């Protein structure tokens, strides 16, 4: 495993002799702009793993993406190699359908300490929820970024991440009522405690997420990548190109259905992904 190969993968060409906040912000943003959040392996008859060497090969050498236990575990290795002081944490994802948090920690994030200040680094939530740069761990503070205004709320020992975004404006009338677009302006993302975790803590969650019929990740094939002007997604056969327009306080959604014969081309051209096995697009 070679840190320089990771930097090459994300396009980082700067200096990294100091574990400071500007450098962390740079690599965090580059990661979400170049490495997709995706679960395509489990819809190609493959398995996701928490083996760091396997994840490194998949994301860095094979130019794939991954979900949180892959992207954020790889990012924790990057933090370690660069000399940052960090702690892996587990978080419970909020389900907008049931209006509840998940029972187990299904999402891995990293807490990074710089000059005695803690920050949340998360390069793998994807879609409209993705932070582009680390968030300062401070309660109630609005932290504006291109996707919207993020804030961390504190209730005793529990922290909760939420985001206030802009109104989604769907360009194609056929998708006006599409359930893939969350029209709530303020969205709860996940909650977490500051309890240090190792990767074994996520083994049960990783198994559940890729095998249970109740898991979002078995119900939908997802590929998402942030762009300088917004983000793009492929969920099942539905492709969305989203452009942020803060001047008009809207996010523009250009959505269309992709024929099966064009899925591989879209993955290559829009996400720079080439799959080794046949994908079965799913959107239940």
From TrEMBL:
Keyword Transferase attached: yes
Keywords, ordered alphabetically: Acyltransferase, Transferase
Top enzyme class: transferase
Protein name stated in the entry: arylamine N-acetyltransferase
Keyword hit for Transferase: yes
The protein's Enzyme Commission number: 2.3.1.5
Source superkingdom: Eukaryota
Family membership noted in the UniProt record: Belongs to the arylamine N-acetyltransferase family.
Signal sequence region: none
Molecular function (Gene Ontology), one example: arylamine N-acetyltransferase activity
PANTHER family noted in UniProt: ARYLAMINE N-ACETYLTRANSFERASE 1, N-HYDROXYARYLAMINE O-ACETYLTRANSFERASE
Organism, scientific name: Pygocentrus nattereri (Red-bellied piranha)
Segments forming a coiled coil: none
């Amino acid at each position: 495993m070679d840190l320089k190969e990771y930097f090459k993968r994300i396009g980082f060409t700067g200096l990294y002799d100091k574990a400071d906040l500007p450098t962390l912000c740079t690599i965090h943003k580059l990661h979400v702009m170049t490495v997709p959040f995706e679960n395509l392996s489990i819809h190609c008859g493959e398995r996701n793993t928490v083996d760091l060497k396997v994840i490194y090969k998949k994301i860095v050498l094979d130019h794939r993406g991954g979900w949180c236990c892959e992207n954020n575990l790889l990012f924790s290795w990057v933090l370690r190699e660069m000399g940052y002081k960090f702690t892996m944490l587990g978080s419970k994802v909020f389900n907008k359908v049931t209006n509840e948090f998940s029972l187990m920690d299904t999402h891995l994030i990293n807490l990074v300490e710089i000059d005695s200040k803690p920050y949340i680094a998360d390069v793998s939530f994807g879609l409209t929820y993705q932070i582009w740069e680390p968030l300062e761990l401070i309660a109630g503070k609005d932290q504006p970024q291109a996707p919207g205004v993020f804030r961390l709320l504190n209730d005793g020992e529990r922290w909760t991440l939420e985001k206030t975004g802009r109104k989604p404006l769907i360009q194609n009338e056929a998708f006006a009522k599409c359930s893939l677009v969350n029209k709530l302006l303020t969205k709860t993302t996940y909650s977490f405690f500051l309890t240090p975790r190792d990767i074994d803590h996520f083994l049960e969650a990783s198994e559940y997420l890729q095998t249970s019929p109740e898991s979002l990740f078995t119900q939908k094939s997802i590929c998402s990548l942030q762009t300088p002007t917004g983000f793009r997604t492929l969920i099942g056969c539905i492709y969305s190109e989203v452009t942020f327009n803060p001047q008009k306080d809207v996010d523009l959604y250009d959505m269309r259905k992709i024929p099966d014969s064009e899925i591989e081309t879209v993955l290559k051209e829009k996400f720079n992904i080439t799959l080794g096995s046949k994908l079965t697009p799913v959107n239940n």
